[in-house]
Design brief:
mainly beta; SH3 type barrels; globular
Amino acid sequence: MKLVEMTKPVGETILGYFRNFERHIGALAVSEVADSSSIRRGVGARNLRRFEKLQDDRLGSVRAAQREPRLWRG
């Protein structure tokens, strides 16, 4: 699971773990950091002001994720 931080157009910031992407409606499902059983569904990906992928380590420090190389060579 990847930690993500999103800012909606109204200014609300959502911090949570990415669960899945519902592609038929273009929405993300994100679980809360403190409680993984509460999942927030229907966060629209199209109109987000900011979407950032983060990394957290075992000691709890959070930083922006580094770029990953693309391996597909189709």
